[in-house]
UniProtKB/TrEMBL annotation, chain A:
Name this protein carries in UniProt: Anti-sigma factor antagonist
Similarity comment text for this entry: Belongs to the anti-sigma-factor antagonist family.
Domain STAS: 4-104
PANTHER family in the cross-refs: ANTI-SIGMA FACTOR ANTAGONIST TM_1081-RELATED, ANTI-SIGMA FACTOR ANTAGONIST TM_1081-RELATED-RELATED
Automatic annotation (TrEMBL), chain B:
SUPFAM superfamilies in the cross-refs: CheY-like (SSF52172), PP2C-like (SSF81606)
Sites bearing 4-aspartylphosphate, chain numbering: 68
Region annotation Disordered: where it falls in the sequence: 564-584
Signal peptide (residue range): none
Record keywords, A-Z: Hydrolase, Phosphoprotein
Superkingdom of this protein's organism: Bacteria
KW tRNA-binding (keyword) present: no
Pfam family, one: SpoIIE
Protein name, entry field: Response regulatory domain-containing protein
Species name: Catenulispora yoronensis
SMART domains reported for this sequence: PP2C_SIG, REC
Domain Response regulatory residues, every copy: 13-136
């Protein structure tokens, strides 16, 4: 079990939320609140997952919710860099289709 | 003026240390007349030896020491310091006595170095006796407070332990061990099991093993019969017959002290039995009464938790179907709820026989809660209805995604659908973000079908079709949920390879194969597990050669694609367009 942390940095064009550690049931509430708050600003929110060591289905569900919320409120939610652990889960879940990433 | 005698002024065992036999005799006589018992030592060495562990048990130590300041081998101050430095005797109060010619500095030194009082000769007998009484009063009050604090700490720990128990046995073990720690003796706990169906007696003693016996409801009734309302605390004689129950035989003969509690009148009582002689003070009885109440509440919580868990499991099982009995297809399924009690997952399976062929499904609604189980039930039901209506696999996924987004926004699920196409020997695969199905070829080959699209609940339009794989007769199909293989810190692709290896090495029949996988990957998961295995007979009957003709278009992608993270094969329907984070 690795400590979860979630930090946001804001610059002129976007808000980058950097998340690290284990993203699972234990932390989804905190994780969602952070994303929700930043999506409410209507800015471009980029989620940096490069330091996530474990992402389970509940964590994945938060990514889906964030993407849906962005559509609703007219914000932009993109996935930034992903660690191999996240990439694997995204690949398996067919998730790349679900929302835009930095590459698109 | 004399104060009324209290327990704090009861006679004590007093150690008198003086090298002068006449002084020893005199002081001893005064103290003996006041009711105390005296033991004597002629110098510091003898005094310390007398107090040492190898000479005197903790319980038989003197309660007070009267120490002459001038001793031949060491000063009285040093004796006092060494008494106070030893944890066994640190609480022993010391009264110094000394000859007339002492300066104030000597007295202050004595007190500064730990003594509780300092008397200078000539000493009046009454002054010595009153000083001893005053010092004893204080020392006994302090020791009582310390003992109570320690007992409360024990009670607190014991209460935490019973609340931490996850099942009936560990609850009773914790309760018996806690009661034994509180009385420093053997204790028996008689309680109903968490499902209220049996009665057990668990025995513990501070240094012995804990044992568990099944007893009759009658024993609990007989024990509690004499108590008012069958609840509370009481001391009673029990009949020889009752006494001969194996559990109670472990308590020493004599009266039993019983502490019973229950949360409501309709609830069975919880009972602690100890030998009445192991209660040292009234506070022991109060502590055990409190502990019995805590235990009754903890057992009630465990019981309602157990009932709730049973209810949810029953509901969950009700959501899950029996597999249809079809000619030519041998199916088996294993469903294991999460090992850790409260976690109810959203794993499910389904098998629907339609005119277009048998549809097999394994899915997983994200989350662990009653709510997740309910969403799972809805999703499975919707799947069944749409499948009976005759929708194709892609349409099924689209409809279900729509249902999830409309009815359960914010929820996601993975779902793998397979259809055995009659008369063609083809297997249609439509996978929404679930673990890939594993095909075990009768010739010994194996392959994951990794083509898939996004999980359900995203509302993203599905831009991919289903995938077709030709399979030979006697091919076995295996679908699992991630609870079986997901381990933190282990790459899921590695886990899939382990699954493949275990499946290839496993027995042929689907049922035995499922059991084999449970053995290999363990049953003690903190997530739900579904394993669905099927062996298809000659349903194609067209002599299909599975690995050469891949219709329409796409070859089955081996799991190596997953492992290597290499270039996406052309047949793969989804693209993960994230160049910034491609796996190395």
């Amino acid at each position: 079990m690795t400590g979860f942390s979630c930090q946001a940095s804001v610059d002129d064009s976007q808000t980058v939320v950097a998340v690290s550690g284990d993203v699972d049931l234990a932390v989804v509430d905190v994780f969602w609140e952070t994303l929700d708050t930043h999506l409410d600003t209507g800015r471009v929110v980029v989620l940096d997952c490069s330091r996530v060591e474990f992402l389970d289905s509940m964590g994945l569900r938060i990514l889906v919710k964030a993407s849906q919320k962005a559509n609703e409120v007219g914000a932009t939610f993109r996935l930034g860099e992903c660690s191999p652990a996240v990439q694997r889960v995204l690949d398996l879940a067919g998730f790349a289709e679900a929302f835009s990433t930095d590459s698109q | 003026m004399t104060r009324p005698a209290s327990a704090d002024e009861a006679p004590a065992l007093v150690l008198v240390v003086d090298d002068n036999p006449a002084s020893r005799y005199l002081i001893g006589t005064w103290l003996t007349r006041a009711g105390h018992t005296v033991i004597e030592a002629a110098d510091g060495t003898e005094a310390l030896a007398l107090l040492a562990a190898d000479r005197t048990d903790q319980a038989d130590l003197p309660e007070l020491a009267v120490v002459d300041v001038r001793l031949p081998d060491m000063s009285g101050f040093e004796v006092c310091e060494r008494i106070k430095a030893d944890p066994r005797t640190a609480g022993l109060p010391v009264i110094h006595i000394s000859a007339t010619a002492v300066a104030t500095a000597d007295r202050t030194q004595g007190l500064d170095r730990g003594a509780d009082a300092y008397l200078t000769e000539p000493i009046a007998p009454s002054e010595l006796v009153s000083t001893v009484a005053a010092v004893m009063r204080y020392a006994r009050a302090r020791s009582r407070a310390e003992r109570l604090a320690s007992h409360l700490a024990t009670l607190n720990q014991a209460t935490l332990d019973v609340y931490a128990a996850q099942d009936g046995l560990s609850f009773r073990m914790a309760a018996a061990a806690g009661a034994a720690a509180l009385v420093q003796g053997t204790a028996v706990v008689i309680a109903h099991s968490a499902d209220s169906e049996s009665v057990y007696a668990d025995t513990a003693s501070p240094d012995g093993p804990t044992t568990s016996d099944t007893v009759t409801l009658g024993l609990l009734d007989r024990l509690t019969r004499g108590l008012p309302d069958k609840v509370g605390m009481g001391t009673c004689e029990v009949s020889a017959e009752t006494r001969s129950a194996p559990a109670l035989e472990r308590l020493r003969a004599g009266k039993l002290a019983l502490f019973t509690a229950r949360t409501q009148r309709t609830r069975p009582a919880f009972c602690i039995a100890v030998g009445a002689d192991s209660l040292r003070a009234a506070e022991d009885a109060r502590l055990l009464t409190q502990f019995a109440q805590a235990c009754a509440l903890a057992l009630e919580a465990l019981r309602s938790f157990s009932e709730e868990h049973e209810l949810v499991l029953t509901l969950q099982r009700a959501f899950l179907p029996d597999l249809p009995d079809l000619p030519g297809v041998d199916m088996a399924v294993r469903y294991l709820p999460a090992a850790t009690g409260s976690e109810i997952g959203g794993d499910f399976y389904e098998a629907v026989d339609t005119p277009d062929g048998l549809i097999l499904a394994v899915g997983d609604v994200a989350g662990h809660s009653l709510q997740a189980a309910i969403v799972m039930g809805e999703l499975r039901h919707a799947l069944r209805v749409y499948a009976i209506e005759g929708h194709g696999l892609k349409a099924l996924l689209e409809h279900l995604d729509n249902v999830m987004c409309r009815e359960r926004p914010g929820w996601t699920a993975t779902l793998c659908l397979l259809r055995l196409e009659p008369g063609t020997g083809r297997l249609e695969v439509a996978n929404a973000g679930h673990l890939p199905p594993l095909l075990l070829d009768p010739g010994g080959g194996s392959r994951f079908v990794t083509e898939h699209g996004p999980l359900l609940g995203t509302g993203v339009p599905i831009r991919w079709g289903s995938h077709y794989v030709d399979i030979a007769a006697e091919t076995r199909i295996l679908m699992v949920t991630d609870g079986l293989i997901e381990v933190r810190g282990v790459d899921l692709a590695d886990s899939l390879q382990q699954l493949r290896a275990a499946a290839v090495a496993g027995p042929a029949s689907p049922g035995a194969l499922c059991d084999h996988l449970l053995e290999v990957f363990g049953r003690d998961h903190d997530d739900d597990v579904v394993i669905l295995g099927a062996r298809v007979g000659d349903f194609g009957s067209q002599g299909v050669s599975p690995f050469e003709t891949a219709a329409p278009g796409q070859p089955a992608v081996d799991a190596a694609t997953l492992t290597s993270g290499g270039p996406v094969q052309p047949g793969r329907h989804f693209q993960h367009g994230m160049p910034s984070n491609s796996t190395p």
